[in-house]
Amino acid sequence: MRLPPLKSLSYFKTAAELGSFKLAAQQLNVTQAAVSQQIRLLEEHLQCQLFTRQTRQVSLTKEGRLLLPYINAGFKSFNEGVNELVQTTQPHTLSVSVLPSFAHSWLMPKLNEFHRQYPEFILRIDPSEQLTDFNSGQIDVGLRFGAGNYPNVRSEYLANDVMVLAYKPGTFDLNKPLQPQLTNQQYILDICPDAERAWQTLFAKYQLPQNHLNAFMEIDNAALVMQAVIAGQGIAVLRKQLIQYALEQNMIEVLPNFSVECEYNYFLVAPAHHFEREKVRLFLSWLKSVLNDITH
To answer: Does 87 have pLDDT greater than 70?
Structure first.
C-alpha cells in the first residue's frame, strides 16, 4: 500500500494529541471542516475508522491507537533530520540554554575567554529556568545545576560547588571575634535548599540565635542576591562558582574556613547526538577547563 498524504497524517497526529477536531483546527490555523476532511481522507485510504466521533470530542479507535505511535516516531525523525540539516548549515553558531543567574554571574564574564580561544564561534544565549525542549531545534545544549538525571537527554558532568558566606570587602574585621559581628548584619537569603542548609551550618558554628534566620531579605535569584551584597545591602551565602568573577575583581570577599558542599552539580545536557557536533564538543571541553571542582 502506498503511503497516505503527509498532510492527513499531520492532521491525524494533532487531532489525536488534542482529542478534538476543533482544537486541532485552532492549532493548525485551519477550519474544523478542513481537519474533518483530512481525517476522512486518511480513513478512506487506510480503509478503517481512526476516531470515534462524539459531540465535543473525539477518541481514538483501536486502529487509531495502533497507528499513533508510528506517526509520532515518523514526525520525530522528520524534525531530527531537519534540525541536523540546520546545524550542518550553521556549524559555528552555538545556542545555549542557561539558568539566568549562571548566565549573568558566571558565563557572561567568561565569554571573552571563550571567544579568544574560539573566535570562529557565535554564542546565542537563552536564559531560562526550565530545561529546554530540544525538539524545537533551536537549542544545541543546556547548562544546568541539578542531579543530572534529566529525562531523554545525556548529561555531562562539569563541576561541583560549595556555598560560602559572601560580603562586601571591609564588612568584617577578621582579627576580632566574629560572633558579635555576624549578629549585627543584615542577612540576604537566596531562596534554595543549599542556602538554607548553609545558613543553619553557619549559625550552629558561631552559636548565633536561630531566630535571626527569620530576619532575612529574600530574593529568588542568586544573581540579584550577589548584586545586593556588592552594593553593601547585607551578607549572603552564595555558590562560589557564581561569585568567582566578583571575587577576582575584589567586589566581594568570603568568610575564611567556611563552606558547605552543594547538593547538586553543574551539567551540560542535550540529546546524545548533539554531543557529536564539533561545536558542542569544543564547548564542553572549554567548560571543563574553566569550571573548577571546588570540593575536590
So the answer is: no
* DSSP string for 159-195: E--EEEEEE-TTS--TTS-HHHHHHTSPBEEE-SHHH
pTM of the model: 0.67
3-class DSSP state for residue 98?
Answer: strand
Cβ proximity of 48 and 62 under 8 Å: no
Instruction: Decide if 146 contacts 193 (C-beta within 8 A).
Output: no
260, 162 Cβ separation under 8 angstroms: yes
Q: In this predicted model, what pLDDT tens digit does every residue of 136-168 receive, in sequence order?
A: 677 899 999 999 998 889 999 999 999 999 999
Return the C-alpha cell found at 250.
Answer: 575584589
What is the per-residue DSSP string for 104-150? IIIIHHHHHHHHHH-TT-EEEEEE-SSPP-GGGS--SEEEEEE-S--
Q: Which residues, other chains included, contact 88 with Cβ-Cβ below 8 Å and sequence gap of 6+?
A: none
Cβ 263 vs Cβ 160: under 8 Å: no
